[in-house]
Structures are given as structure tokens and as C-alpha cells.
Design brief:
This protein is an all-alpha fold. It has a domain at about 275-385. The protein is built from 58 helices and two strands. Strands 1-2 form a two-stranded antiparallel sheet. The radius of gyration is 44 Å and the shape is flat. It holds the Pfam family TPR_RPAP1. Keywords: Nucleus, Transcription. Its main location: nucleus.
Length: about 1250
């Protein structure tokens, strides 16, 4: 096979461009076109042979032409505009040198250059010669004849013969030092298997020397000759393939057998490789090569693609490769969020991808013109932003109490002050897109106009079902981010109109009942569950957005049509139709919670009544295959509950306005009469389903959810309807019948025991499992519904969780007991007396609780709050023996209530925490004090004082609640009302606890902060502090296990701020007595004090201690209790920095620290042992003694400390320079009595010890 020589362009100018084509203006059209006549004229004139060469080159001297033939016409190393000139200068110098001089210079350079640099230079020349070999034929003179087929065949025969000889003797052709280019031809150009190679004009001796000195650079031709030796396919066969006219060794080697896969390195991380489904492949996996998982990248023996390789392929110019890479990345993201790779990666996958700017890659791909690329990108972007497990678990909460309430998924920032928020906003405005994405992906996505692009895709491209569903789910995640993000979606022009007109239509075309929406060719005109869910999440953001959906977009008409359809007759697959109906009901419930679309409730009364009758006859809680029936029934019950709450709110608001004679009256759209018709069917359904649950062979989550929704609906009905004038909606006989025939049999059944036995395993607060939030990058938080490892969901919503039923049961019993005073409370007490529940409550009160910030913990906190309400109702009429367990649990629970549920915290405080009935188990205060073991640390007088203070405090518990209600700002907190509610989405800090675990110290800390900022109001500071100290005394004495959850160091720090809250506040007698009692109680755990620990709200204890010392010097008047607080950190086991602060920097306090050793609540030995060795402190001790600042008369404790350490040190370490210096100063003392004491202290100590 020969190459056809392509001549260079003719008539080149000196600038390197062809001469312009100038048309002869004399030519006119005569049968032939003017262009054809011009071409004939040019061809007829002929082109001079000299025009084939550059005119500039034609004028070069002859010696330069000879040099060019020897050294080449261009440089293989230099690039740029100056490269030809530099190359010509080098040629000129080398042409003046002999061959021996050239070789000497070559050897000199070889010895001086770094071997790696030398190898790089040779490879650069070699690569350019080989890759550009066909193009170099253009540079050959036109008078060189082409290689004929006979020459080519003879060359091939000689090469094959050489290969056979080399195989026979076991040597390669390169070992003969034979230049194959000179075997068969004397011309400068030869052909080897279709590859042209240039030869130089050096003489034979020069070539021989070159081979000896630089074998690597001179073996190129030899290696080219051995191409056919070790290839898996013969070149003659490869030439038949497309684009294989030039044999490429790497390509032919690739189709050979794979090298054996090495074993995985032990205890060493290695690169992760994935298949196209996103599955992580083993290190050495026997995967068939037909699966296309082997490639030319690193580790060719290992199948699969690394993340970096996929990111690179996603930017390929080949469409199919981009789609494949994007789809694979989407699958990896999906499995990562499902927890597949939690325990097998050295670093979280999502963090690695975020560091590679994955979002920007997807955003660029989203602008592609190909629908296939756009669809794959939307799927990948959906898997990045949208968390499918979280959404499924959130949907499980729908139908439960407050289940329609939605979380916020905004990135948390440590900004609290308005000025800091303004500064943060200004800083974000200056950041670039990729910097914003590192902080918050959703906020960065809004910066890149993602919403506008998604609208264009829906409106103009109108892609297939998968792309449409991905767009809707991406928008859902954006709305969940924050109120501002939801506003960006709703304010985007035409976006909501496009979604509602195409996917939430009241009239729709049917699709094949055998396939899902995602499997059809187009879903435009077909209702989509994802679109309804997006509208529900938008509606939960704010009342104004929900109002727009109702009045501007009229979505209630579509909702009504979806609720009224019969699944089998709507033209949709039955499962899709049921999901559509469910989502419609929950969207309507969300709108009803704002008291919107309430007028349609009366219009759909017949539909809802028929649905309830259907469920009463067809739905069973004992059948395992009724999951959709259970979910639909729970949704209907949730809708009825919201309607009842709206009716109650409207009725009460109207009554208040009528009494106040207000001119503006609220319109009552749902009255009590409208709902009274549901009473009987609701009673029948509840009675039937509870009885079926009692006898069920297996208890399922969906069945428990249905019964829980019905119990909550009935509880609301009983609590708000009974007592309405002229309305007989609830009969006491019906309540008694329900209790005797359904509730009590359930409480005594074996199934209920089974349900209660699952409480502990379903608790998020007691769970020790690692949170699934750890797999999320900081810029893209999630709810962590899947715990670490991806094998289980959060315990409160697991398939066996009974928490929803127990919450509803406690709510129902509380409502019934409040309505019907004749209910036998002793039988209800068995619910709270269950051994499994008591064990669960005891653990809650004694352990440090977990997962308090998880969204799914709300199910558990709601259950515990309803249990406390039920216990409040039961307590006065029963002799409940375990009240202490529930009170301790309530003390723990209030520190877990989220910020957006402060009303629930207020109820717990009022009903349980500050309820005297909940502290009745410690009526014998003396026994409680004995349990504290204060006898070892306090005198009889001190113990008696604590006893009197505790008795007095227990009698003032209701007054203490008034103090804390003001300090915790709970006096203005009210329950959410459907008429006034502004949002059903948690705020930015909605999941964070409303109060810290040391909330009992908040009244003191508030006064301290006010005094520190100069805004203090001393009108009733003493009363507030006394109330707080009384409550703390109750907690320390009667609930020590609760206080043990707070470190003793933190409690000491909080308590010491009383001295900083006012200049004379600690001098108040009541404050003084309570501080002394609490200090003695804290010092029971003196060995646990650690002033190096991190205390919340405190930068360092040293700063706080400095404030205390300065305050003591300023206003203490030598108060012995204040001095006792200062002496605690001066013990020898604590840092010497506190002792230096007192003895050196603030030595003035030494004169007034009058605390006596018998007043200390810790042994004096704690200040004496071990002996002080710090030279500066020892000098300070001696200086204080010598100057008379420290004397036994006015500061006995410090006097004893100073004498002991100075005398002991000079006795035990007399040879040290410090001891000799101290001894010399003692000898110079004028106070001979002090001198004698220091010098004879050790002898006297030994006599006392004897």
C-alpha cells in the first residue's frame, strides 16, 4: 500500500499564503461560465515549477539548503513565531562544525542534562516524527519518485525475514544495531507497513556513533520495524478495517488479552470504580469485556470507571459518551444517597464530587441542544439535589398529628444579629458562582438561573416523562430550601402556569392503564403526582403562596376532580390514580389549615361521606394487602380533622368579635352543623378498626397509621364539639360504648403488649445509630432519614414503629377524660403502667438523649407530650406510683422541643415540669437529703438550712413557673390557629431546640448578660434570682439524675454569674443562703471539676474567673461565700494560671479573702497537695507572707497554703537554685516569728503526723 503524494499549495507568497485569485475582467459569458473560462486560461498558461517553493526559501544560500537536508527544516522542540529564526541560527552554527565536534557536544549535553529532561526531549521528537509522518511527505521535493508496489513488497519481505531470524535466535532487531530504513532502498524515503519515516544525511560513522552513545533515540526505526512481531492481529488484516490505513501499535495492542488483575492491596485505599448502573465494583472482578467496562485509562486490567474518568467523559465531544457518563453519575448519586457507600469509602462520595464542581458540569450540560443529554442531565441533577429517601419518609408522616408540617433544608449559619445578617448578605453578593456553590448549592443554583432554564425545558423543549418528573422534583427541593427560594419559584414568570396547565388539569386525557406515567411517550395533559406535591410544598411555605394557588390558579377545582374520581374508571393506572387522590387530599388539608378553600368542603360533603362509608365496609386493619386503603383512609381522616379545627377557630373568632361588637366579622364557612353528620360514621369506623387491630395476626405500620388518624380526628371532635349550644353531636353514651367495646379491650390485648414492647427500639432519642446526615456535604443538607449504612430508616418511622398509635391513643384518652368525668381512670392507668413504657420512660430520664435535632423525632416528642397531658388528667384521682420517672422525662423533654413548637414546650412546663403533683413522690424531703450524702461535706447547721430552704421552695412551685414563663418568653406564646397561621414550614432554625439543656439557669444568665451590656433593670432582680435558685435547689436535691446530664463545671460557672449580675445582689440574705446551699451540693463532685472543658456560651473559664476576681476586689466587702467561690479553682490539681492571677496580677484580693478552713466544703489538703513547684508562685507566696498581705488573722486559708508550699519546697528540694534563693530571702526576713515558722514547719508537721 502506497501513499499518494499531495503537493503543497501553488503560487505561495512570501507571507505563506496563496496568491489571490484575480478574475480576468475581459472574459464574458459565452456558453461556459466565466469561472470555467478563467480556470482553462490558468491551466493553459501552466505553473512554473519554481512556484512550488517559497520565494523566501528560494533566495537562501546553497549552504543553508544543504544544512536543511542534514538537520531538518523545522525544530521539534521550539514553538512560537520565533522558532524558525532560532532554528536557522542553530543550523548555521552546526554546519560550521565537524561531525566529531557535533558528537562531542552531544555527549557533553547528555552528561549535563537531567535524565528525565533528556527522556522528555527525545520522546517529544519521537512523538512528533511518528504522529506527523504523513504530513511530512508534503515537504519532500517533487522530483523524488514514489515507492512502487514492488519496492514495498520487497521491503515487507525483508522485514518479515528479519523478524523470523530474530525469533529464531531470541533477539530483537534492535539488538543488531541495524537501521531498517537502509535495508532495501537507497532513497531518502521508505515505507514500513504504511508508515513513512524520514532518514538523515549523516554518514555511516556518525550513525554508528549515535547508536552507541544514544541507543534510545536511535531505536525508533527499529521499533517501527518490529510492530508486526508481538501484535494480536496481523497488520495485513488490520489494514482492512476502517481508519486503520496507518497501523497504530497502541490500538492493536488493546484488542489483545487483558493482563491478569492484581490482588487488592491490604489495608491500603485504592481508586473506586463503578459500572454503568452506579454499582461499586470489587478491586479484581472478572467482568466480561463485552460490557464495555475496560478502557484505555489507568489500571486497564480493572473494569469500571472512576469518578474523575466519568467527569472527563461527560465533557466528550461524542454525544453517546456524554449521555453514558451523565447517566452513570446519576446512578452513582442515587446509590450514594441510599447509603450504599457509607461504610466503604475513605471520604464521602458527595464531598468528592462537590469539590470537583459537579453542579457546574450539570448546569453546562443542561444547555446542550440534544434532548438525550438534557434528559440525562436532569436525572443527574435531580439525584444530586433531590433526596428520595427523605421524601418517602416525609410522606409517611402525612396523616399523623401535624404530619403536613414541612421542614426547611437551608444551610445553617452561625449568624444571630441583624447587623451580621446584613454583612453576610453583602459578602455573598461579592462572591462568584463557584464560591457560592461551595457554601450553598441551592443558593448557587439560583444564581445560575436554573429556574429559568427549567421553565424553558418545560415550555419549549417539552421532553419525555422522566425529564418532566425530574424537573418537578428539582423544583420541589429548591422550594424546600427556604422562603426566598420558594419565592423565586413562584415569581418566575409563567412557570406555575405551565405546570398547572399541563400537569394539574381538571380534565385530562387517559393513558394506558397497564403502564405508568414515566413509561409513556409524553405526560403533557396527564395529571402528575409530583406536580401536586410541588404545589403542596409551595402552599406550606406561606399563606400568601397558598392563597395564590387557590384564587389565582384555582387548583381546588382540579383537586376536587381528583378526589371524586373512581380509580378504575379514570383512564389512569389504578395505583397512579390512588396516589393522585392521596396527594390531592393532603394538598387540600394543607390549604384548609390556613382556612382556605373551606367553602369547597361543604360542596364535597356527599363525596366525603360516600368515601367514609366505603372505608367502613371495605377497609380492614387486620388485612395485610390493604395498604392503599389504609393510606387513603388516614388521608380522609386527616382532612376531617383539619376541617373540624377550622370550624372551631372560625366559631370562636366569630363569638369574640360578636361580644366585642367588632365591625369586621369573620365569615364562618364551615359550621359545627356541617360536621355533625360525620359523627356516627366516624364512631363506627373507629370501633371497627380498633377491634380488628386487637385481633390482627400481624400489626403493620399502615394499619396503625389509619387507627391513629381516626383517634386524632375523634379526639378533636370530642374536645371542640361537646358543650356547643343546641348541638347534640357527641353523646356520652357513645363514648362509654367506645371505651368499653374497643379501647379497654385493646389496652388489655396481647397485640397492645406487642406494640408497647417495640417502643424502645422505635425511639430516636435512645438510638445510638450514626446519623445519615454525615454523608451529606455541608452545602447540601438533608433530613438524614436513612441512618448511616442505608439499611434502616429513622426508628420513629420504621415499619414496626408504634409511636404514632401511642400518641393518638394518649391524645384520645386525654380528650375523653376531659369530656366525660365518669370514665374509670384506674383502667386507663394501665396504659401508662405498662412495664415496657415504664422502662422506656426511665431510660429517657437517665440517659443523654440523641437525635434531638432530627425532624423525625417530632413523632416521639408529640407522643411523650400527650402522655404527660394524660398523666395530668389521671393523677388527681389515682395513686400513680411512677410519677418521678415521668417528671424527670419531662425535664429532659423540654430541652428537645424545636424552636417552632414553643407552645408544646409551654404545655409541658405548665402541665408537668412545674406541676406540684409531679413532685409529690418526694414528700419526705429529709429522706431526699440523706440520699445526697451531704453529711461528709456540711455541718449539721448547713444541712438543716438546706432542709428548710428545700421545703420552702417546694411550696412555691406555681410562683416559680411565673418567673420562668417570663424569662423563657413563653407568656406570649399561643397555639397555632388556622385563622392566623402564616406558614406550615419550619423556620431556618426550626429543628434546633428552643431551650438549652441548662435552661434552669436562664433567669440568672439573662440578668448577667443585661448587667454585662449595661442594660440591666434592677427593679425585681432579687426576686427573679431567688426563684431561679429555689428551682435549682429543687432539681439538685430531688432530681439529681437530671442535673447530672449537665457537667458540674458548667453548673458552677452558671451559678457564679450571680455575683456578676449585680453589685450587691449576692448580699441579699435569701440569695446568699441559696448560693451557699447549692455550692455545698456541687462540691459533692469536687473531683469532677475540670476548668479546661468547653462550656457552651463561655469563651474560656479564665476570662470568667478574671471577672469574678475583679468583682470581688471591687464590691465583695470580704464576703466569705464569694471568697469560697474564688478558692475553688485555686486547688492544686487545677491550672497554676488561676493561682498566679490571684497571687500576682490581683494581689489586692489577698487582704480580703477571709474564708476560714472550717467554712470550706472541700478538704484543706486539696490546697496543700501536691507541693507547689512553680518558681514564680513560690516567690509570690513568700512575698505575700513577708509583706504582711497574707496573715493568719484575716486570710487563714491562703496563709496556710503559702506557708506550707514555701516551707515544704525548701525542705524537699534544698539543692535547687529556687530553694536556695527562697532560703536566702527567709534568712533575711525581719519577722523572726515568720522566719521560725518557715524553717521549722517540716519538723512540726512530722510531729503532728505522729
Amino acid at each position: 500500500m502506497t501513499h499518494i503524494f499531495v503537493p503543497p499549495p501553488r503560487a505561495l507568497t512570501c507571507e505563506g499564503f496563496p496568491e489571490p485569485f484575480v478574475r480576468d475582467e475581459m472574459l464574458v459569458f459565452k456558453g461556459k461560465s466565466i469561472f470555467a473560462q478563467q480556470v482553462e486560461k490558468v491551466r493553459g498558461s501552466g505553473t512554473p515549477k519554481e512556484m512550488l517553493m517559497d520565494t523566501h526559501e528560494a533566495n537562501q544560500p546553497a549552504d543553508i539548503e544543504i544544512a536543511d537536508s542534514q538537520f531538518g527544516q523545522r525544530s521539534f522542540l521550539l514553538t512560537g513565531p520565533d522558532a524558525p529564526a532560532i532554528h536557522q541560527e542553530n543550523i548555521k552554527k552546526m554546519s560550521e562544525m565537524s561531525t566529531e565536534e557535533i558528537l562531542q557536544e552531544q555527549q557533553k549535553l547528555t552528561s549535563q542534562l537531567d535524565p528525565k529532561l533528556l527522556q522528555f526531549i527525545r520522546s517529544r521528537r519521537k512523538g512528533k516524527e511518528f504522529c506527523g509522518i504523513v504530513d511530512q511527505t508534503v515537504e519532500q521535493p517533487t522530483d523524488i519518485p514514489e515507492l512502487t508496489s514492488e519496492d514495498s513488497s520487497s521491503m515487507k519481505m525483508d522485514t518479515d525475514l528479519l523478524s523470523e531470524v530474530s525469533r529464531d535466535v531470541g533477539m530483537s532487531p534492535s539488538q543488531y544495531n541495524v537501521d531498517i530504513s537502509n535495508i532495501s532502498h537507497s532513497e531518502d524515503k521508505i515505507q514500513i507497513s504504511g508508515a513513512a519515516v524520514m532518514t538523515s544525511g549523516l554518514d555511516k560513522q556518525a550513525q554508528s556513533n549515535c547508536l552507541e552513545n544514544d541507543s534510545t533515540s536511535c531505536q525508533t526505526d527499529t521499533e517501527m520495524g518490529s510492530i508486526a512481531v508481538d501484535l494480536p492481529v496481523k497488520p495485513s488484516e488490520a489494514n482492512k478495517w476502517l481508519h486503520m490505513d496507518v497501523i497504530e501499535r497502541e490500538k492493536l495492542q488493546w484488542i489483545g488479552n487483558l493482563p491478569p488483575a492484581p490482588s487488592a492491596p491490604p489495608d491500603t485505599p485504592y481508586s473506586a470504580r463503578f459500572d454503568f448502573q452506579g454499582v461499586l465494583l470489587p478491586y479484581a472482578d472478572e467482568v466480561n469485556v463485552t460490557q464495555a467496562l475496560h478502557h484505555h485509562g489507568e489500571e486497564p486490567e480493572r473494569p469500571g470507571y472512576t469518578l474523575q474518568e466519568l467527569l472527563k467523559i461527560s465533557r466528550s465531544s461524542v454525544l453517546q459518551q456524554r449521555v453514558l457518563a451523565l447517566t452513570t453519575l446519576a446512578n452513582i448519586l442515587d446509590k450514594t444517597k441510599a447509603g450504599y457507600y457509607d461504610e466503604c469509602m475513605e471520604a464521602p462520595v458527595l464531598n468528592q464530587l462537590m469539590d470537583s464542581d459537579l453542579y457546574l458540569l450539570f448546569r453546562f450540560s443542561l444547555d446542550d441542544s440534544s434532548e438525550a443529554v438534557v434528559t440525562a442531565t436532569l436525572l443527574a441533577l435531580r439525584n444530586l439535589l433531590f433526596n428520595h429517601p427523605d421524601e418517602l419518609c416525609l410522606d409517611r408522616l402525612l396523616g399523623l398529628w401535624n404530619g403536613q408540617y414541612q421542614p426547611t433544608l437551608m444551610v445553617k449559619t452561625e449568624v444571630t444579629k441583624p447587623s451580621e445578617k446584613t454583612e453576610q448578605g453583602d459578602e455573598e453578593a461579592e462572591l462568584k458562582d463557584h464560591q457560592i456553590l461551595r457554601l450553598d448549592i441551592v443558593k448557587g443554583a439560583l444564581r445560575t438561573d436554573l429556574i429559568l432554564r427549567l421553565r424553558y425545558i418545560l415550555e419549549t423543549l417539552q421532553p419525555g416523562p422522566k425529564a418532566v418528573i425530574s424537573v418537578l422534583e428539582i423544583l420541589t427541593r429548591i422550594v424546600r430550601h427556604s422562603y426566598d427560594s420558594a419565592l423565586a419559584v413562584t415569581c418566575c414568570p409563567r412557570l406555575l402556569s405551565i405546570i398547572i396547565n399541563n400537569f394539574v388539569r381538571s380534565g385530562w386525557r387517559g393513558i394506558a392503564a397497564s403502564c405508568k406515567s414515566s413509561e409513556t411517550s409524553s405526560v403533557y395533559g396527564v395529571p402528575q403526582v409530583e406536580a401536586l406535591k410541588l404545589l403542596r410544598v409551595i402552599a406550606s411555605c406561606s399563606r400568601s403562596m397558598a392563597s395564590d394557588l387557590v384564587h389565582k390558579f384555582r387548583v381546588v377545582e382540579s383537586i376536587a376532580s381528583y378526589i371524586s374520581i373512581v380509580p378504575r374508571e379514570c383512564g389512569l393506572p389504578e395505583q397512579e390514580a390512588v396516589r393522585l387522590c392521596l396527594e390531592s387530599i393532603y394538598l387540600w388539608s394543607t390549604l384548609l389549615a390556613y382556612s382556605l378553600s373551606d367553602g369547597h368542603f361543604v360542596d364535597l360533603y356527599p363525596v366525603l361521606m360516600s368515601v367514609l362509608h366505603f372505608h367502613h365496609s371495605a377497609t380492614s386493619t387486620s388485612e395485610l394487602g390493604s395498604q392503599f386503603g389504609h393510606e387513603h383512609g388516614a388521608a380522609v381522616m386527616s382532612l376531617l380533622k383539619e376541617a373540624m379545627l377550622v370550624a372551631d377557630a372560625q366559631g370562636k373568632r366569630s363569638a369574640r368579635q360578636k361580644v366585642a361588637k367588632s365591625t369586621q366579622r369573620i365569615e364562618v364557612t364551615i359550621s359545627y352543623e356541617h360536621l355533625s353528620g360525620f359523627s356516627q360514621i366516624l364512631h363506627l369506623c373507629l370501633k371497627k378498626w380498633i377491634n380488628q387491630l386487637t385481633r390482627a395476626e400481624e400489626v403493620t405500620f399502615s394499619a396503625l397509621k389509619l387507627v391513629a388518624a381516626t383517634l386524632n380526628c375523634s379526639a378533636v371532635q370530642y374536645s371542640i364539639f361537646l358543650g356547643q349550644p343546641g348541638l347534640v353531636s357527641v353523646s356520652l353514651l357513645e363514648i362509654e360504648d367506645l371505651m368499653n367495646c374497643a379501647i379497654l379491650p385493646l389496652l388489655n390485648s396481647s397485640n397492645f403488649k406487642l406494640i408497647c414492647s417495640r417502643v424502645k427500639s422505635s425511639s430516636c432519642l435512645l438510638s445510638m445509630k450514626r446519623s445519615g446526615k454525615d454523608r451529606d456535604p455541608q452545602s447540601l443538607p438533608s433530613l438524614g432519614a436513612l441512618v448511616w449504612g442505608g439499611r434502616e430508616v429513622m426508628p420513629s418511622i420504621s415499619p414496626t414503629s408504634p409511636l404514632a398509635l401511642l400518641q393518638a391513643l394518649a391524645h384520645f384518652l386525654t380528650s375523653v377524660c376531659s369530656v366525660h368525668q365518669g370514665i374509670h381512670l384506674q383502667s386507663i392507668q394501665h396504659f401508662l403502667d405498662n412495664p415496657h413504657i415504664l422502662e422506656y420512660i426511665a431510660q429517657l430520664g437517665s440517659q443523654k438523649l440523641q437525635a434531638g435535632d432530627s425532624w423525625f423525632t417530632r413523632v416521639e416528642t408529640a407522643m411523650l407530650a400527650d402522655m404527660l397531658k394524660l398523666l395530668k388528667v389521671v393523677l388527681p384521682a389515682t395513686n400513680f406510683q411512677h410519677i418521678g420517672l415521668f417528671h424527670t422525662m419531662a425535664l429532659q423533654l423540654v430541652s428537645l422541643i424545636p424552636t417552632d413548637e414553643k407552645f408544646l414546650a409551654k404545655e409541658i412546663f405548665n402541665h408537668a415540669v412545674f406541676n406540684p403533683d409531679f413532685i409529690s413522690d418526694f414528700s419526705d424531703v429529709a429522706c431526699s437529703l440523706e440520699a445526697l450524702k451531704l453529711a461528709d461535706l456540711s455541718s449539721k447547721q448547713e444541712q438543716s438550712s438546706i432542709h428548710k430552704l428545700l421545703e420552702k421552695a417546694t411550696l412555691k412551685i406555681p410562683n416559680l413557673w411565673q418567673c420562668y414563663q417570663l424569662s423563657l418568653h413563653l407568656d406570649s406564646v399561643t397555639e397555632r390557629c388556622p385563622v392566623d397561621i402564616s406558614s406550615q414550614t419550619a423556620g431556618k432554625n426550626g429543628c434546633e431546640p428552643a431551650f438549652p439543656n441548662d435552661w434552669a439557669y436562664l433567669p440568672i444568665l439573662i440578668l448577667y448578660n443585661q448587667a454585662h451590656s449595661g442594660k440591666g433593670d434592677s427593679s425585681d432582680n432579687a426576686g427573679s434570682v431567688v426563684s431561679s435558685l429555689q428551682w435549682l435547689l429543687i432539681m439538685e436535691c430531688l432530681r439529681p439524675q437530671m442535673m447530672a446530664t449537665i457537667s458540674v463545671t458548667a453548673r458552677f460557672c452558671r451559678l457564679s454569674t450571680v455575683f456578676l449580675a449585680g453589685s450587691d445582689l449576692f448580699l441579699e440574705p435569701e440569695v446568699h443562703h441559696h448560693l451557699s446551699a447549692l455550692l455545698h451540693i456541687l462540691l459533692r463532685s469536687n473531683s469532677s471539676f475540670d476548668f479546661n472543658e468547653k462550656i457552651p456560651g463561655l469563651t474560656s473559664f479564665y476570662d470568667l474567673y478574671t471577672q469574678l476576681v475583679e468583682q470581688f476586689a471591687a464590691v465583695s466587702y470580704g464576703d466569705e461565700l464569694f471568697g469560697h467561690f474564688l478558692l475553688i479553682p485555686l486547688q492544686q490539681r487545677h491550672s497554676p494560671s488561676y493561682r498566679k492571677l490571684v497571687w500576682s496580677e490581683h494581689a489586692a484580693v489577698l487582704r480580703v479573702l477571709r474564708t476560714r478552713p472550717e467554712q470550706l466544703a472541700v478538704p484543706i489538703q486539696a490546697y496543700l497537695e501536691p507541693c507547689e513547684t512553680d518558681p514564680s508562685l513560690l516567690i509570690c507566696y513568700l512575698h505575700g507572707l513577708a509583706t504582711g498581705q497574707v496573715r493568719d488573722l484575716w486570710c487563714p486559708v491562703l496563709y496556710k497554703v503559702a506557708v506550707h508550699h514555701v516551707a515544704t519546697f525548701i525542705t524537699e528540694q534544698p539543692c535547687t537554685s529556687v530553694a536556695q534563693q527562697l532560703n536566702a530571702r527567709i534568712q533575711q526576713l525581719g519577722n523572726k516569728q515568720l522566719q521560725n515558722i518557715l524553717l521549722t514547719y517540716s519538723n512540726q508537721k512530722k510531729l503532728e503526723d505522729r
